[in-house]
Amino acid sequence: EALPAVRAMRARYRARFGADIGAGEVLAYDAMRLILRGLREGATTGDALRQWLDARGRSAPAFPGVTGPLR
């Protein structure tokens, strides 16, 4: 059973594009949002972004993804 946020995203996608969205697309959406958040929070190099990502769920809060907390 899909999480409520995933079901809501699928419904929005279907309403907008008239097609279903797959698990891969939902995960890609979360991944892109995660990377964009890191860039907005100051990770301006590849190394800085890797460090920012590595901190999720450790020294910094997990990222609240559609698919659940990303660590």
Oligomer: single chain
What's the Cα radius of gyration? Answer: 14 Å
Average pLDDT figure: 94
Shape: elongated
Largest sheet strand order: 1-2
Task: Report helical residue fraction.
Answer: 55-70%
Q: SSE string, helix = H, strand = E?
A: HHHEE
Total helical segments: 3
- Characterize the main sheet: 2 strands, antiparallel
Poorly predicted regions are: none
Strand content: 5-15%
Terminal CA distance reads 22 Å
- Briefly note the structural class of the backbone: mainly alpha
- Number of extended strands: 2
Short description:
By secondary structure, this protein is mostly helical. Helix content is 59%, strand content 8%.
Give a structural overview.
The chain has 71 residues and is mainly alpha-helical. Helices cover 59% and strands 8% of the residues. A two-stranded antiparallel ribbon has the order 1-2. 4% of the residues are buried.
Write the layout of secondary structure elements.
Elements: H1 4-17, H2 23-40, H3 46-55, E1 63-65, E2 68-70
Antiparallel strand pairs: 1-2
Which properties best describe this structure?
2 strands; 71 residues; 3 helices; mainly alpha; 8% strand; two-stranded antiparallel sheet
